[in-house]
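Exercise 7.
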Amino acid sequence: MANDKKNSDRYKKIFWAAFSPLLAMLTVWALLKQNESVSVRDIAHTAADASKPWFFMAIVSAICFIIFEGFALCSILKGAGFKPKFKNGFLYSTADIYFSAITPSATGGQPAAAYFMMRDRISGGVITAVLMLNVMMYTVSIVALGFVSVLLRPGSFSGFSLPSKLLIIGGAAVQLILTVFFVLVLKNGGLIFTFIRRIILFLGRKKIIRNTKKPIGRLTKAQADYTACSQLFSGNYLLLLRAFLWNLLQRLSQIAVSPLLFIAMGGDPSLSTDIFAKQCLITIGYNFVPLPGAMGVADYLMLNGFSGLMSRDMAFHLEMLSRGMTFYVCVSLSGIITFIGYLIKRRRRRK
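Solution. The predicted structure, written as tokens, is:
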């Protein structure tokens, strides 16, 4: 039965790895079909004719989304007593981003980052606490930017259609619930380990695991590391602030791509704040959708939000270019870097 479960997990990974590119192609096709007056060639011409300095800043901002997560993970690991090199933190970041994008509800991101951390001989308990804190700050930063968008442009929410408003409200509710959940779990991580321990004992009773002493022993060690690490985090407000700021910068770098591209395309710079506020709400709206990369939903929200500020064709061009940079290019780049990092670590391990 254990082998059946492993095979099932493997098939699921293969399915989502194959389905995600197909979903991406279907999304692009549906968008082009929706606006037949615009073609891929038109979008390419728009990119070629864009202001080079602003377009370059948009590219740099999109790449910073990967870089800032690396800094966030490194800062948390340093607070836990480790001295990670940035290249390692960068690899954790690319693994998280790539596997989050190709799995539903981003379920594959943290296990992938954890895999590379374990290769760097970081204990399981510390990894759990580090990733838990990072996800918590990632969620808090999204909620914070939602408040910022309302302060910047109080009327930005009213410009969305009813389905978009419902997605944004639902996303905000989920993010707030997750924030509370992560705080509770970080303070009382024993709940996680108790649950895992019960699963191991259950598998032992069903004869799926023959000897439960070893996994229980490793789990007890991991729980001790987690408890020590989480206690260190809870009293280190400077560490928490740094983790929050890096995650906030990560979200800002992604959200800033749309207003930068808008200006690059010749749009009125005075509207860039409106686009930024809309993009903050859009991010909240698609972050809880259980689809790989929220493909389709994110595109719908962006088109709906931008159409009230510019022509339909310009909104379409902006959405395609922005989504292309912040998602498709970033995910592809993260996948390539993760694969290269995996090969390098595998070769070093063999030596």
